[in-house]
Amino acid sequence: MTTTTQQNDTATTHASLVGQSLIHAGRLLRRWQREPEIMVQSLIFPTVLLLMYQLVLSRFLSASSGRASIEGFVPLVAVTATMFGAMASGTSLHAEAENGLLDRWRALPGHRAAIPAGRLLAECARTLGATVLLLLIGALLGLRWHTGLLSVLGALLVPVLLVVGFATMVMALAMSRAGAKIVELSSILILLGMFFNSGFVPVDQYPGFLQPVVRAQPMSVAIDAMRGLISGGPVALPVLYTALWSVGLTIVFGGQIIRSFRK
């Protein structure tokens, strides 16, 4: 009888955690719609960046690489939107910690884990919406799907897979005392990554000493996975490497988030 009661309590606890996480995710999604910085970095900036790449650099890069540049531009911009959007929401999280909103949430009855879990769910939803928009714009600019519908759906989920680990890292940085400054400084690495990845130009066109770094960095493996799913090419290894990056970042920075919320 005791075992049955414990099992029922565990099931109720899990259901409550899921429900509270969804509430926090919905709250964030509604609030982000009113925050210009997040909307700009998640939707407007990536759209303008994709148009600029395609209109200005398409002919030159297509001639030098031997394949349609839009096949690399769309994954590149989708991954960039994933990261910049997470950085913007990280700044928002730091503001919540500074103005005491997180302390008020912690004072309420409920799961503390629902707060970071809900934020991760909101990040996944934001990333999925931005990726759908960019794929549609890419189709208008000439992107063609050479694989089946399931592969395209898989391509939509690659940025979602990456954002779990990346958003975990951003959340951990944002919860530190100098969170806002650290998040802003981290954006410099994303800017560098925008020009040193496999979506901008083929890896073999970079200097030899840079090629291993460019090939293995998280933006490149996610771009390769999306391009393989959309246009054909290697898929298994790029998806595996993307998952490894995401899991690794989650493990490394997840503990820091738990310690920050306990404080």
From TrEMBL:
Protein name listed in UniProt: Transport permease protein
Membrane spanning residue stretches: 38-57, 128-146, 152-175, 182-201, 235-258
Membrane topology: Multi-pass membrane protein
Coiled coil: none
Lineage summary: Bacteria, Bacillati, Actinomycetota, Actinomycetes, Mycobacteriales
Top-level division of the source organism's lineage: Bacteria
Domain ABC transmembrane type-2: 37-260
Keywords in alphabetical order: Antibiotic resistance, Cell membrane, Membrane, Transmembrane, Transmembrane helix, Transport
InterPro entries: ABC-2_transporter, ABC2_TM, ABC2_TM_bact-type, ABC_2_transport
Localization of this protein: Cell membrane; Membrane
Pfam families assigned to the protein according to its UniProt record, in alphabetical order: ABC2_membrane
Annotated family: Belongs to the ABC-2 integral membrane protein family.
